[in-house]
Amino acid sequence: MTSSSPRKFWLIAAACAVVLLAAAMRILGAGHLPFWSDEAWNIWVTRDGAALMLERLAANHHPPAYFLALQGWQVVAGDGKLALRFLSIAAGVLTTAIIYRAGADAFGHGVGIAAALMFAVFEQPVYYGQSVRHYTWLLLGEALTLWTLVRALNVRRGGAGPPMPARSRSSPTHCTSG
Question: Helix or strand or coil: residue 75?
Answer without folding.
Answer: helix
